Amino acid sequence: MFAAEAKKLIDKVGDKELIYNESLIKKVDLLTLVKVSRGKFWPVQKYKIMQLSLPELMEVEDFNPECTDEPFVSNFMTSTKTSGRGGLGGKDIGVYEAEVNAGADSMDGLVQPVNMMSKKVDLKALRSALSDGTIKTDKVNQLALKTKDKLAFVHQTIYNSSPVTLIRKCTRDGSLLASCIKILSLFAKGHRKEKTSFTVPEKSTFAYGLVEIKIEDEKLKILCEPWTRDGLFGDDIESAVLQQIKEALKMKDAFLQPLADLPESTRHDLLKKLSELAEDGDTLSLLEQTLDQCSNGAFEGTLSQAVSSFMDLLDISNTSSAVKDAVHLLVSALDTLPDEVPPLLTCCSPDTLRVLNQLVDGLKDGQATLPESLPVPLQEGGELRWAAEFICLNDQKLKELSDGWDRPELPPEVLLEVLCLAVQGLSLMQPTANP
Length: 435
Hints:
The protein has 435 residues and is of the alpha+beta class.
């Protein structure tokens, strides 16, 4: 797909200074503020696009920065044909079409070439105009920065200069694990033929570059070097084998168990509200942030109605610390997953969740194996089949997947752990018996 191919291109020519925009729906303008944070339980980078710009932080009106707008890549064209049979990482199949005991024949391509453009702020002129300027304290408070959060602004955007029309033809049989690399949202259905075309609107932001800022004594400091993707938490993430993941799961499993002690009606209401919150990644992140601050004392900030309703259900003042920590761990696991995944997990049927939880238990005990009888969402072509296969990975397949992984901020080892914990936590929230 064009977005995936553009991402590979950006990775090759953009070094580590460009951050891929996960959603082309999100508009990212120059000078937009971005909060970079890390999860409490996992050293994972999170980029939060703020509804505030650098000039607004200082209440500078009618600010027009000096910018350059020039080609990033000219006549970008992609046409990919894949075919073959074999195991994950087969010679004839690229990392975006990784195959597991399956067959695939497909062709992706652009109808015509497109220019990718780069728009940059003149950092030297920007520093001259804004450095050492006074920051508005009330604006900083609105950002709700935690101690380890970093604050940056967008100094570069990469966008397509004209609409992009993509045509895709494919014939597939079997089950592909490619979805785990394609942001886990495009699981290929078995025995399917398709021909699709779609258009990406012009000036869609595919990537952006950041420059970190610091606030000292209410004065703005713009750092000299652009932000790099591995600049903050990369050293905290180490490659893990399945045994390490199993040990981590067994340890954190105990922290989730208090969820089962909640009254059944409370679990039902919390799970229903959580499924609503999971539809919006930003709202789910706000809930995680609220629980984090509550664990360190009273929350100070503005809550959305949805988050307030969840906190009222949890009844934070009368709930034991063990239960609060368990809810926090579950929400953090869901928030760490790619945005497309929490809605699928929180809304899946009890039968589907039961089988996924059995697979997690199998993983902790040794090696998970898919049973012969599966609920529809876990069957070949089902929307959660990738999750079942992911939990069943062995050390070799996990390593092969890691070698072709394109999301350094969320390694497959971390993804596997948070997926399993989310499944376990949601399973504990289920009714003890079917009505």
